[in-house]
Task: structure prediction
Amino acid sequence: MSTVVLVGAQWGDEGKGKITDYLAEQADLVVRYQGGNNAGHTVIVGETTLQLHLIPSGILYEDKLCVIGNGVVVDPEVFFEELENLKGMGISGDNLRVSDIAHLIMPYHKILDSFEEEKRGELKLGTTRRGVGPAYVDKYARRGIRVGDLFEPKLFREKLKRALEYHNFILTGIYGAEPLKQAEIEEKYLEYGRRLKKYVEDTSLLIYEAVKSGKKVLFEGAQGTLLDIDHGTYPYVTCSQPISGGAATGSGIGPNFIEKIVGVTKAYTTRVGEGPFPTELKDEIGDFIRQNGREFGTTTGRPRRCGWLDGVVLKYAARINGLTSIAVTKLDVLSSLPVVKICTGYKLDGRYIEHFPHSLEELSRCEPVYEELPGWKEDISSARKMEDLPPNAQRYVKRIEEITGLRISLIAVGPAREQTISLENVF
Ligand code: GDP
Ligand code: IMO
Ligand code: MG
Result:
């Protein structure tokens, strides 16, 4: 058995796309298991830059199957937009597979995502407004429409009618908006269904058989541990389970099929959207990291909030996900800072704690306790081995290992595929 789950160890945007693309070379299948096109995963190979939101980041390898699992919410419009874009780059996308029981993002979900955010006013969550949250709400309200429903027009029409009765009531009654028309959505979605058909199958069975026959499967997480609906900074979270456990439910495999779990973390911390962030830097160092790391959202273009690496968060991610190793990305971004800091604990109401508190009120009162390490001036973007890194950069990553108690399997020193230091075989 050879399976690896890759999860974000922070608040998303850790560089999962780049690490997925790097590891996909060794994999036979790359599987997305949750989230939707709220994700923005960047893959850079040579002159090619891909911004993927829904399609797995293994897509550049045409001999690997790229699977959109049952736990993902699928916006068919985005699926075909991304596919067309890939085709324009000479990538056929014929290796894509989509679960028949994945739920669909419908037009009313996208409209509602924006209306709900507006209504929250000051208390807005900062969602990506892609309809992801409302689509999961419908899934759990048992009023969702699944990919497979598109192939049974009578059933689809009936389900849509029931969903629209509900959503038009909300749209007109609460938000004073125009009701949506059944005929327009029906026509559009049934056409999507005809075009989707060739990609759709029971992907749980596909993955099961692949694992059983000794194939290597890479599960590509989206979002991150602290955006998890249960274990994240609720309510400032997404509506799915980005943590490693989500890989089992979101792809239909038993948890005992999961072998290795790699947490991806930046060498510092970022967050888009609202919510507490103990190590946030609202000063010139935060601005330096944002500019140097190009920390602007892949999906929404929003500037990302930046701060020092938070060891408390990493230890929490290690526990919640059962991490077996970590991949540290964007180490190059810290080059030229005279001092680099790692948060090793929080001061909460005069007490020193090393665990991540569940209460947001407590978290927002937490003051980070930092350990200071000397920085490095050298450009490290061409380092390919640990020994190529300046001693202070080596000391920094070693400290991350000591604080988390985990081995670092990969270090990224630039966005390109080859700008990666491999310290151990992940598969
Ligand atoms: P994801 O959502 O976790 O896949 O991460 P994003 O793609 O949203 O954001 C990570 C950004 O950092 C992307 O623009 C990547 O191209 C870039 N990136 C990834 N790894 C590195 C690295 O080691 N160094 C630098 N400078 N950029 C990186
Ligand atoms: P990747 O996969 C960073 C954040 C949004 C918002 C919250 C809820 O690229 O790491 P949603 O639209 O999901 O209902 O928004 O979650 N968010 C992300 N932040 N990276 C992501 O994905 C994110 N996906 C959602 O900014 O705060
Ligand atoms: Mg991203």
Q: What stands out?
A: The mean pLDDT is 97.
